[in-house]
C-alpha cells in the first residue's frame, strides 16, 4: 500500500504527519476523490480544477499544476496495482508550532495522497445495482458547502444519523424545504420527462459526477434537464430519485423515510442515465 506524502512515495506505515498539522487540529484543508478503473481516471481535469479552486478559496498556495497532479495520480495508481481505485488527495494548510486560529504566512502545505480499492465501474443493470434507502434530514451544515473541505463533521453527523437507523444515505433540505444534496452525494429527481437537480450555490458541492451526468443527459438523452430548486414535495412525489458520486456514479434511490419511490423499484430512466454515463464517462 503505497502513499504519497510531500513529494515522496512510501509504504503507508512510513508516512508520518505531525499532530500540529492544521489539517488534524482544525480540519484546515481541501480534499478530492478521483476514481480510476484499470489506470483510467474519470473526470480527472474537473477534479483537479475543483481542488485548485478550493485551495484558492481558502488561500492555500500550492505550486502543483494539472500535469504534476496527473503524474502523482498515475504513479500512485500504478504502484497500487492499477485496479479499481479511488485516489484520495488531501492538501492541508500545513504544520505550525502553535495552535492559533490565524494562519502564518510562511506555512508549507502538507500534500498527501493514497489509493483505496473501489468496486468495478458500475453498469446499468437493474438486478445488480445497489438500490438506496434514504432518510430526509434538515441540512445543518455550514454555508460554504461548495468548498470540498476536509472538515466533514457536519456531513459525518448527518450520515451517521441515517446509518444508525439502517439507512444507506440521507437527503438534506434547507430551511425553505428545498433539496440541497446528500451527506456524500449530489441528488437528482425525475418527474415525467424532466430530470432536475439543485443549482450550484454555496449549499452543495459541485460534484464531478453531477457535472458529467448533466453533460451526457443534455447531449444524448431525450429528457429535459433542469438545474433549479427542487422542493421536498417534488422529491417525495418523484418518479425516480438518484444520488451521484465518484465511486457510485448514478445510484437509484428506492425509498425515502421508508416510503417507496417510484413503486419501490429501480427505474427505467435510471437505467438510461447510468448506461449513458458508462458510455461517455472517460
Ligand atoms: N464525496 N456532495 C458531497 C457532500 C460529497 O462529499 C460528494 C463526494 C459529492 C459528489 O461529488 P463527486 O461526484 O465529485 O464525487 C457531493 C466523496 C466521494 C467523499 O467524500 O468520499
From TrEMBL:
List UniProt keywords, sorted A-Z: Aminotransferase, Folate biosynthesis, Pyridoxal phosphate, Transferase
Instruction: Quote the SUPFAM superfamilies the UniProt record gives.
Output: D-aminoacid aminotransferase-like PLP-dependent enzymes (SSF56752)
Q: Which CDD domains match?
A: D-AAT_like
The protein's required cofactor(s) are namely:
pyridoxal 5'-phosphate
Signal peptide positions on this chain: none
Q: Which GO terms describe its cellular component?
A: cytosol
What metabolic or biological pathway is this protein involved in?
Answer: Cofactor biosynthesis; tetrahydrofolate biosynthesis; 4-aminobenzoate from chorismate: step 2/2
Q: A single GO BP annotation from the record? A: folic acid biosynthetic process
Q: Top-level EC class, please?
A: lyase
Q: This protein's superkingdom?
A: Bacteria
- Which reactions are catalysed by this chain? 4-amino-4-deoxychorismate = 4-aminobenzoate + pyruvate + H(+)
Q: Fetch the Pfam families from UniProt.
A: Aminotran_4
Question: Which PROSITE patterns does the protein's record reference?
Answer: AA_TRANSFER_CLASS_4 (PS00770)
Molecular function terms, GO-annotated: 4-amino-4-deoxychorismate lyase activity; transaminase activity
Q: What is its EC number?
A: 4.1.3.38
InterPro entries on file: Aminotrans_IV (IPR001544), Aminotrans_IV_CS (IPR018300), Aminotransferase-like (IPR036038), BCAT-like_C (IPR043132), BCAT-like_N (IPR043131), Class-IV_PLP-Dep_Aminotrnsfr (IPR050571)
UniProt function note: Involved in the biosynthesis of p-aminobenzoate (PABA), a precursor of tetrahydrofolate. Converts 4-amino-4-deoxychorismate into 4-aminobenzoate (PABA) and pyruvate.
Q: Which family does it belong to?
A: Belongs to the class-IV pyridoxal-phosphate-dependent aminotransferase family.
The name under which this protein is listed is Aminodeoxychorismate lyase
* Species of origin: Thalassotalea mangrovi
Amino acid at each position: 500500500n503505497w502513499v504519497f506524502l510531500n513529494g515522496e512515495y512510501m509504504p503507508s506505515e512510513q508516512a508520518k504527519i505531525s499532530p500540529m498539522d492544521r489539517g488534524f487540529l482544525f480540519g484546515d484543508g481541501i480534499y478530492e476523490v478521483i476514481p480510476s478503473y484499470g489506470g483510467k481516471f474519470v473526470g480527472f481535469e474537473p477534479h483537479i480544477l475543483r481542488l485548485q479552486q478550493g485551495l484558492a478559496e481558502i488561500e492555500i498556495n500550492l505550486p502543483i499544476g494539472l500535469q504534476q497532479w496527473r503524474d502523482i495520480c498515475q504513479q500512485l495508481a500504478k504502484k497500487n496495482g492499477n485496479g479499481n481505485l479511488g485516489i484520495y488527495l488531501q492538501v492541508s494548510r500545513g504544520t505550525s508550532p502553535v495552535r492559533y486560529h490565524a494562519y502564518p504566512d510562511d506555512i508549507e502545505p502538507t500534500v498527501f495522497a493514497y489509493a483505496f480499492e473501489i468496486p468495478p465501474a458500475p453498469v446499468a443493470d437493474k438486478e445488480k445495482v445497489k438500490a438506496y434507502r434514504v432518510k430526509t434530514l434538515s441540512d445543518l451544515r455550514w454555508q460554504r458547502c461548495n468548498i470540498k473541505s476536509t472538515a466533514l463533521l457536519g456531513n459525518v453527523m448527518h450520515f451517521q444519523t441515517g446509518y444508525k437507523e439502517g439507512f444507506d444515505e440521507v437527503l438534506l433540505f434547507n430551511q425553505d424545504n428545498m433539496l440541497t444534496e446528500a451527506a456524500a452525494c449530489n441528488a437528482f429527481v425525475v418527474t415525467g420527462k424532466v430530470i432536475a437537480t439543485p443549482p450550484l450555490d454555496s449549499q452543495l458541492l459541485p460534484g464531478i459526477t453531477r457535472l458529467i451526468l448533466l453533460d451526457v443527459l443534455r447531449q444524448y438523452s431525450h429528457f429535459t434537464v433542469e438545474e433549479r430548486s427542487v422542493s421536498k414535495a417534488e422529491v417525495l412525489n418523484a418518479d425516480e430519485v438518484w444520488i451521484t458520486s465518484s465511486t457510485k456514479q448514478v445510484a437509484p434511490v428506492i425509498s425515502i423515510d421508508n416510503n417507496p419511490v417510484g413503486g419501490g423499484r429501480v427505474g427505467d430512466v435510471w437505467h438510461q442515465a447510468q448506461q449513458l454515463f458508462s458510455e461517455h464517462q472517460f
